[in-house]
Amino acid sequence: MKISPNNCWGDALALIKQNVTPQQFNTWFKPIAFEHFDKAKKTILVQVPSPFVYEYLEENFLGLLKQVLYRTFGEGVQLTYRVVTDKEHKLTQDIEADPGDIGPRKARNGANHSPSPMDIDRSFEIDAQLDSHLTFRNYIEGTSNKLARSLGLSVAEHPSQPQFNPMFIYGPSGCGKTHLINAIGVRCKQLYPEKRVLYISARLFQTQFVDANFHGAINDFIRFYQTIDMLIVDDIQEWINATKTQDTFFHIFNHLFRNGKRIILASDRPPVDLQGMNERLLTRFACGLIAELEKPDVKLCTDILKSKIQRDGLHIPDEVVRFISSTANGSVRDLEGVVNSLLAYSVVYNSDIDMHLAERVVKRAVKMDNHPLTVDDILDTVCNHFNVTVTAVNSKSRKRDLVIARQVSMYLAQKYTKMPAARIGRLVGNRDHSTVIHSCSQIENRLKVDTAFKDEIDSIEVSFKLKA
User: Fold this and answer.
1) Which residues are annotated as a binding site for ATP?
2) Known binding residues
3) Domain AAA+ ATPase: where (predicted)?
4) pLDDT of 397-431, one tens digit each?
5) pLDDT in tens, 381-394
6) Which DSSP string corresponds to 332-362?
7) Domain boundary among 365, 391, 418
8) What interhelical angle do 400-416 and 451-466 show, nearest 10?
9) 286 plus 306 within the same structural domain
């Protein structure tokens, strides 16, 4: 009895299903549609929904595909992928892949080929997620940031130039990384409004990825990011040990890089110190420009303070400015926090801003020692603020006040400790890492729109420093 090609493909899928997990089968093999088998040429043609599926299959399941297809269709068969880039208009792209060849993939004409969704709809506008207040105009230059600032401005004004791609910026907390990468995006958007620019935190990217994977929309997720002209990702150290997120970003990175799109990354450490990051990602991070931002010195702190004072129309004596600059531990965030606190105290108590007030505020607003915060410290402070108990927060209760305190604790633990999400989850209510990621995302989104809530978080953070 002659077996039809369709039945052979069904047998192949059945064998594959026995050798992979249910999630792997549903994600990578179920979306494949068998189209045709050319017996004379020994060529199988299948449809896949995106180039990412093709690339992932070739990189992760090549050996399995070879064994299964040889067994069901015969020795020497070739697998051809038809990438459906636009179902509505039936736009496709054909790619050959020989299951016996682990080397470079070949297109039908025999040339080296890198698949890409050429027909993705780019007509819709996207929110760049940039902070319009963080610009080059108010990014004060000093010896600690001169090189990075200069190169960042060049990238913003000439985004299509191949030099310095990717741009990898690293430095300690509070040195101005987020300001600089935002300024690059804002300037690029000003000069090239048609460019699709997107700023995103690594944590939010990971949250989106987990959500897309859960809802079976991973291909849409990939396709969206492949349409970006300038992708800016902040705090990529958050992806350490997040293997699946790294794998997905690797493919997005490759597509953008191959197509001359701009990639800008920020981290609290250089690529060489990103232990737990995929080696193939690290080599790509290091192939462009690596720029370090150091903590601002006293002179730069003074210049930043004077600029902020002038911009906000404040009057602060020079001796107070010098005192704050020399005690703020080289952190721009601390500088801004001190000025905001000084203004608040002077308004509430109807007093002038002088050295006496400055000493009082700095003592409360600037952490003067190197004693690190622990999750227990954070839990105690948050629970005191919301008037709940640590035991209740660590319970399974879904009461609104406990959920908020729990989410805030996770958010602040992620911000102030070096612990991975899984460890934070175990220490705060014995939750898993996805709960921590979701909680941090919820708090970040609320901080953007709820000023009263932001004031509460600021108050809690000031309490950390009071305990120093």
Assistant:
1) 174, 176-178
2) 174, 176-178
3) 163-295
4) 999 999 999 999 999 998 887 677 888 998 999 99
5) 999 999 999 999 99
6) HHHHHHHHHHHHHHHHHTT----HHHHHHHH
7) 365
8) 60
9) no
